[in-house]
Amino acid sequence: MYQIYYAKSPDMDGFQETNQSHLLKTSHLAQQFGAEIHRAEEARLCGLLHDFGKYSQRFQDVLKGTASGVDHAVGGAAFLYGLSRNKAAFRTAVEVIYGHHDGLVSFTQLKSDLQNSLAGPVTCRSGKEAALSGKAEFTQAMQAFARDFPDFTLPLLLDVSPEGPVETMLHTRLLFSCLVDADYSASAGILERDAHLLCPEFLLERLEVYRQQIQAESKSDPELNRLRTQVYDRCGTAGEENPPGIFNLTAPTGTGKTLALLHFALRHCIRYHKRRIILVLPFLTLTEQSESVYQNIIPEILSDHSQSKLDEAGRELAARWDAPFIITTSVKFFESLFARRPTDCRKLHSIADSVILFDEAQSLPSHLIHATLQAVQTLCKDYGCSMVFSTATQPAFEVLPKLNWHPAEILPDHPQLYQRLRRTEVTWRLDAPVPLSIIAEEMSQQESVCAVVNLRRHARSLYELLKLLCEENSVFYLTTDLCPAHRTRTISIIKKRLQDKLPCHVVATQCIEAGVDLDFAVMYRALAPLEAVIQAAGRCNRNGLLPQPGQVVIFEPEDSGKLYPGDWYSKGAAVLKNMLANGPVDIHDPGHISEYYTRLFRHLEDDPALIKWLKAKDYVQVEDAYRLIDKQGIQVIVPYAGEEELYREISSQLRSDGVTAELMRQAAPITVATFDEAMLKLHGEPLFFPRRRQSVEASGYYLLLTGHESCYTSDMGLQFQETKPEDYML
């Protein structure tokens, strides 16, 4: 009687799945997913061998509860390594099998584990004992596997990895995604996927109906509406006529790019049979705004970001991106392309054959640009994607050294569009630094005015000055000192006052420059990179309803300290200032925007650490080095007056259960980031991961201590009055 090898412990009904059954299910699903990336046979091989290590007594003892600390993944990787005689074509599959539980490790780093496991007992990189060790145990496992799969043969040919570290590692991650998704799905009993199919013809009809409705209700300038129609129509035509690839959509702020992008995507999906549309946005405010528009057209939207409120079924769809239309963030999308963990990579194969819409393309961080664009090129060249980079300030990525970047422009005559949409006049007041008291005095004389500054301490000072000069209920403060729920409420009040033509004086940081649809008559902007200046100007006379152009004033605040929140931001402002020293800069001229980026990007290189680890093909270090947001501060859950009940519920659960991902999602509307760690230790209660972990870890989250709730104010949000505020942005 042969021994039966099991894959899982018995379930609640006493059923225990055999390893043969689990491997069959996983290989079947992996083959399906692999077909999506044109690597069906390689994915099937990974599915069939990933749990080869479970053909061992050590792992069976784990299932019985008589053993622990056993690594079964190394067994399948070592088996394939030996069977393929270390042929280069099989190394990707070896990496994928080895990493299917703990994450990807490069072949160079894991090779010793493979060799040692084949030779005898070994402790793996994971710190666990290998499930299979030595020739005798592998021989016994091979015999058991052969009984379960008598027709198994090693494929003769597998795809060779592409050249270049970014391309090679992404090639591995896509295959890894197929195995991980298949393994998770098979373990959960999900053997067939529901038909979450994109129906672009149906959605195109709904888009047309919705667009006609908003056109009928529009109060914008008729000429602006005509130009929006032109942009919309041209995007649809381009989506149908242009073959898949990389595209730019360069158009001024306020030209209706939200609907125009969808028009392009739907027509492109119809013509070229794309499977899904993925909208990638840099800011959570943009995800909220876009979802509020698109939900009028698209019945099924999967929103996958840090503040998504998903039920169990929704979380499963988000884990594998099995949805026809997805809204996500830059962090979630791009960091997944450089990740190593199974949960982060599981969805990657679903990106294949998608239309990806990346709005506000200028938001890509400078230290990651080369690697990011190389990954995008790989998705489009090897995996059937089309990607649109949409913005009013299109970065001149083509001037970057060592990058062959030639996207197709959807609106090749966009310079004429900029000239026809001149809605503002810019005054450059840069002869001498200007005290904030003068800016406040000038703003107090206006009825509809906003000032955008670079640092929160400047925003606080200007706000306090304005309160002394204006009616209290006409002055508003918008920074990330306010929690998201508070900002949303404040923006709603500002919009209502502007619509009712009531006095409105707003002080803000960069958080107002994207995803916030406000329209002021006058805009003051502290000197900043050109893209930030243009974004701020886009909130002035946005709808073209003023009889004269809106007034935009660029000034340099008088301050003996630093003026900018970071080195790259400072460099962008310096480039703009140098351009101005040589002559006028027209923010409505794409030629000047291109010149700015050419100067800014000249000699630009990615982060040296990222370059180093990419060359070494070190998945662990690459994941750590590729971070779109370097410093997120400490997260503080605050008692915002509009969400008292949510604060009470969250704080109670946190104290009793500790920090969980679900609780943090629920708490996101009342969470503020701060860099003032010293003062937080006096006013905040630190929160920890649950104690069921092996060791208690600080979570990076705090609650304001009882009696210190006044640190969160009704107008300026989180304020620690006892200390000088930090010089940070947003």
Would you give an account of this structure?
- Helix 4 runs antiparallel to helix 5 (91-98) and helix 18 (436-444) packs across helix 19 (456-469).
- This protein is 45% helix and 14% strand.
- It is globular.
- The protein is of the alpha/beta class.
- The N and C termini lie far apart (69 Å).
- It is built from 28 helices and 21 strands.
- Strand 12 (475-478), helix 20 (484-499) and strand 13 form a beta-alpha-beta unit.
- It has a 7-stranded parallel β-sheet with strand order 5-6-4-7-8-3-9, with helices on both faces. Strands 10-15-14-11-13-12 form a 6-stranded parallel β-sheet, sandwiched between helices.
Kindly, what is the distance between the CA atoms of the first and last residues, rounded to a whole number of angstroms?
69 Å
Put simply, the count of helices is: 28
Helix content: 40-55%
Q: How much of the residues is beta strand, in percent?
A: 5-15%
Number of strands: 21
Report the C-alpha radius of gyration, rounded.
28 Å
Question: Strand order of the main beta sheet, please?
Answer: 5-6-4-7-8-3-9
**What general outline do the C-alpha atoms trace?**
globular
> Residue ranges: pLDDT <50 for 5 or more in a row?
722-730
Mean pLDDT, as a whole number? 91
- Biggest sheet descriptor: 7 strands, parallel
- Secondary-structure-based class equals alpha/beta
